[in-house]
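Whiteboard transcription, Tuesday session. T.W. wrote the C-alpha coordinates on the left side:
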Protein backbone atom coordinates (compact mmCIF):
# COMPACT_ATOMS: atom_id res chain seq x y z
CA UNK A 1 0.00 0.00 0.00
CA UNK A 2 1.51 3.37 -0.94
CA UNK A 3 2.49 5.66 1.88
CA UNK A 4 1.58 9.36 1.98
CA UNK A 5 1.74 12.05 4.65
CA UNK A 6 -1.21 11.96 7.02
CA UNK A 7 -3.38 15.09 7.01
CA UNK A 8 -2.96 17.45 9.98
CA UNK A 9 -4.79 16.21 13.06
CA UNK A 10 -6.73 18.61 15.27
CA UNK A 11 -5.33 18.86 18.81
CA UNK A 12 -8.37 17.25 20.42
CA UNK A 13 -7.91 14.06 18.36
CA UNK A 14 -4.13 14.02 18.32
CA UNK A 15 -3.93 10.81 20.31
CA UNK A 16 -6.62 8.84 18.50
CA UNK A 17 -5.73 5.76 16.45
CA UNK A 18 -5.06 6.03 12.75
CA UNK A 19 -8.37 5.96 10.84
CA UNK A 20 -8.88 3.02 8.45
CA UNK A 21 -7.50 3.55 4.97
CA UNK A 22 -4.91 6.14 5.96
CA UNK A 23 -1.29 5.95 7.01
CA UNK A 24 1.21 8.10 8.81
CA UNK A 25 4.05 9.67 6.89
CA UNK A 26 7.37 7.78 6.78
CA UNK A 27 8.97 10.60 8.78
CA UNK A 28 6.42 10.30 11.59
CA UNK A 29 6.67 6.51 11.68
CA UNK A 30 10.43 6.77 11.96
CA UNK A 31 10.00 9.31 14.74
CA UNK A 32 7.75 6.92 16.64
CA UNK A 33 10.26 4.12 16.12
CA UNK A 34 13.00 6.39 17.45
CA UNK A 35 10.93 7.26 20.53
CA UNK A 36 10.11 3.64 21.30
CA UNK A 37 13.74 2.67 20.76
CA UNK A 38 14.79 5.40 23.18
CA UNK A 39 12.31 4.04 25.74
CA UNK A 40 13.83 0.58 25.28
CA UNK A 41 17.28 2.08 25.71
CA UNK A 42 16.15 3.48 29.07
CA UNK A 43 14.88 0.00 29.89
CA UNK A 44 18.41 -1.34 29.56
CA UNK A 45 20.15 1.68 31.05
CA UNK A 46 18.14 1.08 34.22
CA UNK A 47 18.73 -2.65 34.00
CA UNK A 48 22.44 -2.60 33.16
CA UNK A 49 23.40 0.16 35.57
CA UNK A 50 23.43 -2.54 38.25
CA UNK A 51 25.89 -4.62 36.22
CA UNK A 52 28.55 -1.91 36.03
CA UNK A 53 27.98 -1.00 39.70
CA UNK A 54 27.98 -4.54 41.06
CA UNK A 55 31.65 -4.61 42.12
CA UNK A 56 31.34 -1.47 44.32
CA UNK A 57 28.01 -2.81 45.65
CA UNK A 58 29.59 -6.22 46.36
CA UNK A 59 32.42 -4.62 48.33
CA UNK A 60 30.09 -2.21 50.19
CA UNK A 61 27.55 -4.88 51.18
CA UNK A 62 29.83 -7.93 51.32
CA UNK A 63 27.93 -9.96 48.72
CA UNK A 64 28.76 -13.22 46.93
CA UNK A 65 28.70 -13.76 43.14
CA UNK A 66 25.53 -15.83 43.54
CA UNK A 67 23.83 -12.91 45.31
CA UNK A 68 24.93 -10.59 42.50
CA UNK A 69 23.46 -13.06 40.02
CA UNK A 70 20.16 -13.03 41.89
CA UNK A 71 20.08 -9.23 41.82
CA UNK A 72 20.81 -8.83 38.12
CA UNK A 73 19.16 -12.06 36.98
CA UNK A 74 16.77 -14.47 38.66
CA UNK A 75 14.88 -12.16 41.04
CA UNK A 76 14.50 -9.48 38.39
CA UNK A 77 13.46 -12.03 35.74
CA UNK A 78 10.79 -13.76 37.83
CA UNK A 79 8.78 -10.59 38.41
CA UNK A 80 9.55 -9.31 34.90
CA UNK A 81 8.13 -12.33 33.10
CA UNK A 82 5.32 -13.03 35.58
CA UNK A 83 3.91 -9.52 35.25
CA UNK A 84 4.63 -9.43 31.51
CA UNK A 85 1.89 -11.94 30.57
CA UNK A 86 -1.12 -10.12 32.10
CA UNK A 87 0.20 -6.72 31.03
CA UNK A 88 0.56 -7.95 27.45
CA UNK A 89 -2.95 -9.43 27.56
CA UNK A 90 -4.14 -5.98 28.69
CA UNK A 91 -2.14 -4.35 25.88
CA UNK A 92 -3.93 -6.48 23.26
CA UNK A 93 -7.16 -4.82 24.44
CA UNK A 94 -6.15 -1.31 25.49
CA UNK A 95 -4.05 1.74 24.61
CA UNK A 96 -0.52 0.40 24.22
CA UNK A 97 1.22 3.76 24.26
CA UNK A 98 -0.21 4.60 27.68
CA UNK A 99 0.88 1.24 29.06
CA UNK A 100 4.44 1.84 27.84
CA UNK A 101 4.46 5.34 29.41
CA UNK A 102 3.19 4.07 32.79
CA UNK A 103 5.72 1.25 32.77
CA UNK A 104 8.58 3.63 31.97
CA UNK A 105 7.59 5.85 34.90
CA UNK A 106 7.55 2.90 37.30
CA UNK A 107 10.88 1.36 36.34
CA UNK A 108 12.69 4.71 36.21
CA UNK A 109 11.33 5.69 39.60
CA UNK A 110 12.38 2.40 41.17
CA UNK A 111 15.87 2.77 39.69
CA UNK A 112 16.20 6.09 41.49
CA UNK A 113 14.92 4.46 44.69
CA UNK A 114 17.71 1.85 44.40
CA UNK A 115 20.15 4.56 45.45
CA UNK A 116 18.39 4.96 48.80
CA UNK A 117 18.59 1.34 49.99
CA UNK A 118 20.53 0.40 53.12
CA UNK A 119 20.90 -3.38 52.77
CA UNK A 120 20.73 -6.30 50.34
CA UNK A 121 17.06 -7.04 51.03
CA UNK A 122 16.01 -3.48 50.24
CA UNK A 123 18.06 -3.47 47.05
CA UNK A 124 16.41 -6.76 46.07
CA UNK A 125 12.97 -5.20 46.55
CA UNK A 126 13.95 -2.14 44.52
CA UNK A 127 15.10 -4.33 41.65
CA UNK A 128 11.81 -6.22 41.84
CA UNK A 129 10.10 -2.86 41.34
CA UNK A 130 12.28 -2.17 38.31
CA UNK A 131 11.35 -5.57 36.90
CA UNK A 132 7.64 -4.92 37.45
CA UNK A 133 7.86 -1.67 35.50
CA UNK A 134 9.95 -3.08 32.68
CA UNK A 135 7.47 -5.94 32.21
CA UNK A 136 5.12 -3.50 30.48
CA UNK A 137 7.67 -2.07 28.06
CA UNK A 138 8.42 -4.40 25.19
CA UNK A 139 5.26 -6.42 24.32
CA UNK A 140 3.04 -3.33 23.79
CA UNK A 141 5.85 -1.62 21.86
CA UNK A 142 6.33 -4.69 19.64
CA UNK A 143 2.63 -4.68 18.85
CA UNK A 144 2.64 -0.96 18.03
CA UNK A 145 5.60 -1.34 15.67
CA UNK A 146 3.88 -4.19 13.83
CA UNK A 147 0.95 -1.83 13.23
CA UNK A 148 3.11 1.10 12.13
CA UNK A 149 5.22 -0.90 9.65
CA UNK A 150 4.12 -3.35 6.93
CA UNK A 151 5.23 -7.02 7.10
CA UNK A 152 8.03 -6.61 4.54
CA UNK A 153 9.66 -3.91 6.72
CA UNK A 154 8.76 -5.35 10.10
CA UNK A 155 11.94 -7.31 10.91
CA UNK A 156 14.04 -4.24 10.18
CA UNK A 157 11.81 -1.98 12.30
CA UNK A 158 11.75 -4.45 15.19
CA UNK A 159 15.52 -4.82 14.95
CA UNK A 160 15.99 -1.06 15.12
CA UNK A 161 13.79 -1.11 18.22
CA UNK A 162 15.74 -4.03 19.66
CA UNK A 163 18.98 -2.10 19.13
CA UNK A 164 17.76 -0.03 22.06
CA UNK A 165 19.17 -2.87 24.20
CA UNK A 166 22.66 -1.98 23.10
CA UNK A 167 22.14 1.75 23.17
CA UNK A 168 21.08 1.23 26.78
CA UNK A 169 24.10 -0.95 27.48
CA UNK A 170 26.36 1.66 25.90
CA UNK A 171 24.94 4.52 27.96
CA UNK A 172 24.54 2.44 31.11
CA UNK A 173 28.11 1.21 31.04
CA UNK A 174 29.62 4.56 30.03
CA UNK A 175 27.75 6.82 32.41
CA UNK A 176 27.43 4.20 35.14
CA UNK A 177 31.20 3.85 35.42
CA UNK A 178 31.81 7.58 35.29
CA UNK A 179 29.04 8.39 37.79
CA UNK A 180 30.14 5.63 40.15
CA UNK A 181 33.69 6.95 40.29
CA UNK A 182 32.57 10.57 40.59
CA UNK A 183 29.60 10.29 42.99
CA UNK A 184 29.40 6.70 44.26
CA UNK A 185 27.00 3.93 43.29
CA UNK A 186 24.01 5.30 45.21
CA UNK A 187 23.90 8.67 43.46
CA UNK A 188 24.56 6.92 40.13
CA UNK A 189 21.23 5.07 40.50
CA UNK A 190 19.40 8.33 41.25
CA UNK A 191 20.93 10.32 38.40
CA UNK A 192 20.16 7.57 35.87
CA UNK A 193 16.58 6.93 37.01
CA UNK A 194 15.06 10.41 36.98
CA UNK A 195 15.24 11.24 33.20
CA UNK A 196 13.00 8.27 32.37
CA UNK A 197 10.05 9.97 34.05
CA UNK A 198 10.49 12.98 31.77
CA UNK A 199 10.67 10.73 28.70
CA UNK A 200 7.38 9.07 29.71
CA UNK A 201 5.60 12.42 29.60
CA UNK A 202 7.15 13.22 26.21
CA UNK A 203 5.98 9.86 24.86
CA UNK A 204 2.37 10.60 25.79
CA UNK A 205 2.52 14.04 24.17
CA UNK A 206 4.09 13.02 20.86
CA UNK A 207 3.30 9.37 20.05
CA UNK A 208 -0.09 8.23 18.78
CA UNK A 209 -1.71 4.86 19.28
CA UNK A 210 -1.81 3.20 15.81
CA UNK A 211 -4.80 1.39 14.37
CA UNK A 212 -4.53 -2.22 15.51
CA UNK A 213 -4.13 -4.66 12.62
CA UNK A 214 -3.28 -1.78 10.24
CA UNK A 215 -1.75 -4.17 7.69
CA UNK A 216 -4.17 -7.07 8.24
CA UNK A 217 -7.67 -7.88 7.09
CA UNK A 218 -10.66 -6.42 8.90
CA UNK A 219 -11.69 -9.94 9.95
CA UNK A 220 -8.31 -10.60 11.59
CA UNK A 221 -8.59 -7.39 13.59
CA UNK A 222 -12.26 -7.65 14.56
CA UNK A 223 -12.24 -10.27 17.30
CA UNK A 224 -10.51 -10.07 20.66
CA UNK A 225 -9.19 -13.58 21.29
CA UNK A 226 -8.97 -14.81 24.84
CA UNK A 227 -5.77 -15.84 26.57
CA UNK A 228 -6.79 -19.46 26.04
CA UNK A 229 -7.33 -18.92 22.30
CA UNK A 230 -3.93 -17.25 21.89
CA UNK A 231 -2.17 -20.06 23.72
CA UNK A 232 -4.07 -22.61 21.64
CA UNK A 233 -2.77 -20.99 18.45
CA UNK A 234 0.79 -20.83 19.78
CA UNK A 235 0.67 -24.49 20.76
CA UNK A 236 0.05 -25.29 17.10
CA UNK A 237 3.11 -23.29 15.98
CA UNK A 238 5.98 -25.72 16.56
CA UNK A 239 8.62 -23.37 15.22
CA UNK A 240 7.56 -20.65 17.69
CA UNK A 241 8.73 -22.78 20.61
CA UNK A 242 12.01 -23.59 18.90
CA UNK A 243 12.56 -19.87 18.20
CA UNK A 244 11.73 -19.09 21.83
CA UNK A 245 14.19 -21.69 23.12
CA UNK A 246 16.86 -20.54 20.66
CA UNK A 247 16.44 -16.96 21.89
CA UNK A 248 16.41 -18.11 25.51
CA UNK A 249 19.62 -20.13 25.22
CA UNK A 250 21.36 -17.37 23.27
CA UNK A 251 20.37 -14.85 25.94
CA UNK A 252 21.51 -17.33 28.63
CA UNK A 253 25.02 -16.73 27.31
CA UNK A 254 24.48 -13.01 26.71
CA UNK A 255 23.19 -12.36 30.23
CA UNK A 256 25.15 -15.07 32.02
CA UNK A 257 28.50 -13.93 30.69
CA UNK A 258 27.60 -10.36 29.82
CA UNK A 259 26.48 -9.50 33.35
CA UNK A 260 29.80 -10.75 34.72
CA UNK A 261 31.98 -9.32 31.96
CA UNK A 262 32.74 -6.12 33.95
CA UNK A 263 33.71 -8.29 36.94
CA UNK A 264 35.85 -10.50 34.68
CA UNK A 265 37.76 -7.50 33.31
CA UNK A 266 38.10 -6.03 36.80
CA UNK A 267 39.37 -9.22 38.44
CA UNK A 268 41.28 -10.96 35.65
CA UNK A 269 42.57 -8.01 33.61
CA UNK A 270 43.02 -5.38 36.31
CA UNK A 271 40.89 -2.68 34.66
CA UNK A 272 39.22 0.09 36.68
CA UNK A 273 35.44 0.45 36.88
CA UNK A 274 35.56 3.71 34.91
CA UNK A 275 37.70 2.22 32.13
CA UNK A 276 35.52 -0.89 31.98
CA UNK A 277 32.41 1.22 31.58
CA UNK A 278 33.85 3.26 28.72
CA UNK A 279 35.34 0.27 26.90
CA UNK A 280 32.28 -1.98 27.21
CA UNK A 281 29.98 0.86 26.21
CA UNK A 282 31.73 0.85 22.84
CA UNK A 283 32.51 -2.85 22.52
CA UNK A 284 29.16 -4.26 23.66
CA UNK A 285 26.89 -1.30 22.90
CA UNK A 286 28.00 -0.39 19.38
CA UNK A 287 28.61 -3.95 18.16
CA UNK A 288 25.31 -5.17 19.60
CA UNK A 289 23.37 -2.40 17.87
CA UNK A 290 25.09 -3.13 14.56
CA UNK A 291 24.37 -6.84 14.83
CA UNK A 292 20.76 -6.41 15.85
CA UNK A 293 19.88 -4.03 13.02
CA UNK A 294 21.85 -6.14 10.54
CA UNK A 295 19.91 -9.23 11.63
CA UNK A 296 16.60 -7.56 10.87
CA UNK A 297 17.73 -6.17 7.52
CA UNK A 298 19.13 -9.55 6.48
CA UNK A 299 15.93 -11.33 7.55
CA UNK A 300 13.68 -8.91 5.63
CA UNK A 301 15.73 -9.28 2.46
CA UNK A 302 16.58 -12.98 2.56
CA UNK A 303 13.11 -14.17 3.55
CA UNK A 304 11.78 -12.81 0.26
CA UNK A 305 13.58 -15.80 -1.26
CA UNK A 306 13.12 -18.37 1.49
CA UNK A 307 11.30 -17.74 4.77
CA UNK A 308 13.54 -20.21 6.56
CA UNK A 309 16.09 -17.40 6.73
CA UNK A 310 14.15 -16.19 9.78
CA UNK A 311 15.85 -19.13 11.55
CA UNK A 312 19.04 -19.36 9.51
CA UNK A 313 20.14 -15.79 10.28
CA UNK A 314 20.31 -16.36 14.08
CA UNK A 315 21.74 -19.86 13.54
CA UNK A 316 24.64 -18.52 11.48
CA UNK A 317 25.18 -15.68 13.96
CA UNK A 318 25.46 -18.12 16.85
CA UNK A 319 27.91 -20.30 14.94
CA UNK A 320 30.15 -17.32 14.11
CA UNK A 321 30.27 -16.21 17.75
CA UNK A 322 30.75 -19.59 19.44
CA UNK A 323 34.47 -20.37 19.12
CA UNK A 324 35.80 -16.76 19.31
CA UNK A 325 34.19 -16.44 22.75
CA UNK A 326 36.49 -19.16 24.09
CA UNK A 327 39.44 -17.02 23.00
CA UNK A 328 38.01 -13.98 24.79
CA UNK A 329 37.76 -15.92 28.04
CA UNK A 330 41.17 -17.61 27.89
CA UNK A 331 43.56 -15.03 26.41
CA UNK A 332 45.59 -12.69 28.60
CA UNK A 333 45.85 -10.01 25.91
CA UNK A 334 43.28 -7.42 26.98
CA UNK A 335 43.37 -5.38 23.77
CA UNK A 336 43.00 -8.45 21.56
CA UNK A 337 40.05 -9.89 23.46
CA UNK A 338 38.20 -6.58 23.28
CA UNK A 339 38.63 -6.50 19.49
CA UNK A 340 37.41 -10.08 19.18
CA UNK A 341 34.55 -9.37 21.57
CA UNK A 342 33.43 -6.48 19.37
CA UNK A 343 33.26 -8.73 16.29
CA UNK A 344 31.60 -11.72 17.92
CA UNK A 345 29.03 -9.47 19.61
CA UNK A 346 27.84 -8.42 16.15
CA UNK A 347 27.29 -12.06 15.18
CA UNK A 348 25.69 -12.98 18.50
CA UNK A 349 23.14 -10.14 18.20
CA UNK A 350 21.55 -11.21 14.92
CA UNK A 351 18.82 -13.35 16.49
CA UNK A 352 16.21 -11.23 18.24
CA UNK A 353 14.65 -8.92 15.61
CA UNK A 354 14.19 -11.83 13.22
CA UNK A 355 12.64 -14.00 15.93
CA UNK A 356 10.15 -11.34 17.05
CA UNK A 357 9.13 -10.57 13.47
CA UNK A 358 8.47 -14.19 12.56
CA UNK A 359 6.55 -14.73 15.81
CA UNK A 360 4.22 -11.85 14.90
CA UNK A 361 3.81 -13.25 11.39
CA UNK A 362 2.49 -16.52 12.86
CA UNK A 363 -0.47 -14.97 14.71
CA UNK A 364 -3.33 -12.50 14.13
CA UNK A 365 -2.77 -8.86 15.19
CA UNK A 366 -4.67 -9.04 18.49
CA UNK A 367 -2.42 -11.87 19.63
CA UNK A 368 0.88 -10.09 19.02
CA UNK A 369 1.54 -8.38 22.35
CA UNK A 370 0.76 -11.60 24.21
CA UNK A 371 2.88 -13.60 21.76
CA UNK A 372 5.80 -11.26 22.45
CA UNK A 373 5.18 -11.67 26.18
CA UNK A 374 5.27 -15.46 25.92
CA UNK A 375 8.46 -15.26 23.85
CA UNK A 376 10.03 -12.93 26.42
CA UNK A 377 8.76 -15.07 29.30
CA UNK A 378 10.77 -18.02 28.01
CA UNK A 379 13.72 -15.86 26.95
CA UNK A 380 13.99 -14.06 30.28
CA UNK A 381 13.26 -16.95 32.63
CA UNK A 382 16.02 -19.03 31.06
CA UNK A 383 18.33 -16.29 29.82
CA UNK A 384 18.05 -13.49 32.35
CA UNK A 385 16.74 -15.61 35.23
CA UNK A 386 19.15 -18.54 35.11
CA UNK A 387 22.12 -17.16 33.14
CA UNK A 388 23.62 -14.73 35.67
CA UNK A 389 22.59 -16.82 38.70
CA UNK A 390 24.10 -20.09 37.45
CA UNK A 391 27.23 -18.35 36.18
CA UNK A 392 27.66 -16.68 39.57
CA UNK A 393 26.89 -19.91 41.44
CA UNK A 394 29.42 -21.84 39.35
CA UNK A 395 31.98 -19.11 40.04
CA UNK A 396 31.43 -19.51 43.82
CA UNK A 397 31.62 -23.32 43.60
CA UNK A 398 34.81 -23.22 41.53
CA UNK A 399 36.60 -20.80 43.87
CA UNK A 400 38.14 -23.61 45.92
CA UNK A 401 39.61 -25.38 42.87
CA UNK A 402 40.17 -22.57 40.35
CA UNK A 403 41.33 -19.77 42.62
CA UNK A 404 41.30 -16.39 40.86
CA UNK A 405 40.20 -18.07 37.63
CA UNK A 406 36.89 -19.24 39.09
CA UNK A 407 34.82 -16.63 37.21
CA UNK A 408 36.70 -17.31 33.97
CA UNK A 409 35.95 -21.05 34.18
CA UNK A 410 32.31 -20.44 35.07
CA UNK A 411 31.93 -18.24 31.98
CA UNK A 412 33.54 -20.92 29.80
CA UNK A 413 30.90 -23.38 30.98
CA UNK A 414 28.13 -20.89 30.18
CA UNK A 415 29.42 -20.40 26.63
CA UNK A 416 28.96 -24.13 25.88
CA UNK A 417 25.17 -23.58 25.93
CA UNK A 418 25.61 -22.04 22.47
CA UNK A 419 25.53 -25.52 20.93
CA UNK A 420 21.98 -26.04 22.16
CA UNK A 421 20.92 -22.59 20.93
CA UNK A 422 22.09 -23.36 17.41
CA UNK A 423 20.22 -26.67 17.49
CA UNK A 424 16.98 -24.89 18.43
CA UNK A 425 17.22 -22.47 15.50
CA UNK A 426 17.95 -25.37 13.15
CA UNK A 427 14.81 -27.16 14.37
CA UNK A 428 12.82 -23.93 13.93
CA UNK A 429 13.88 -23.78 10.28
CA UNK A 430 12.25 -27.17 9.68
CA UNK A 431 8.76 -25.99 10.71
CA UNK A 432 8.61 -22.23 10.14
CA UNK A 433 7.15 -22.32 6.60
CA UNK A 434 4.25 -24.56 7.64
CA UNK A 435 3.52 -22.38 10.67
CA UNK A 436 3.45 -19.19 8.61
CA UNK A 437 1.03 -20.78 6.15
CA UNK A 438 -1.14 -21.98 9.03
CA UNK A 439 -1.72 -18.41 10.20
CA UNK A 440 -3.83 -17.66 7.13
CA UNK A 441 -6.32 -20.28 8.22
CA UNK A 442 -6.31 -19.02 11.79
CA UNK A 443 -7.21 -15.49 10.72
CA UNK A 444 -10.15 -16.76 8.69
CA UNK A 445 -11.49 -18.92 11.53
CA UNK A 446 -11.29 -16.38 14.38
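and on the right, the sequence the group agreed on:
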Amino acid sequence: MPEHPAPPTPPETAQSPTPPGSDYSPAYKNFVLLMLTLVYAFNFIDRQILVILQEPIKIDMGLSDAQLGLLSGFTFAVIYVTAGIPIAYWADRSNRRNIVAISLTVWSGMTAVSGLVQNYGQLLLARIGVGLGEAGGSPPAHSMISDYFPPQKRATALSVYTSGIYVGILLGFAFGGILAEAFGWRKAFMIVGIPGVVLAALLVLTVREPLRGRWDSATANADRPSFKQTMAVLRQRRSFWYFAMGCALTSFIAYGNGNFLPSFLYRNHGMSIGDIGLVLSLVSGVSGAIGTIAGGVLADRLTLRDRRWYAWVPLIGGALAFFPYFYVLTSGNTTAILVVLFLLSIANSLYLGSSIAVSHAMVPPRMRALTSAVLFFILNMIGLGLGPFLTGLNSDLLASVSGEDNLRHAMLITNCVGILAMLMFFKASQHVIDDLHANNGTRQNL
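Someone added at the bottom: The chain has one domain: 26-210+226-437.
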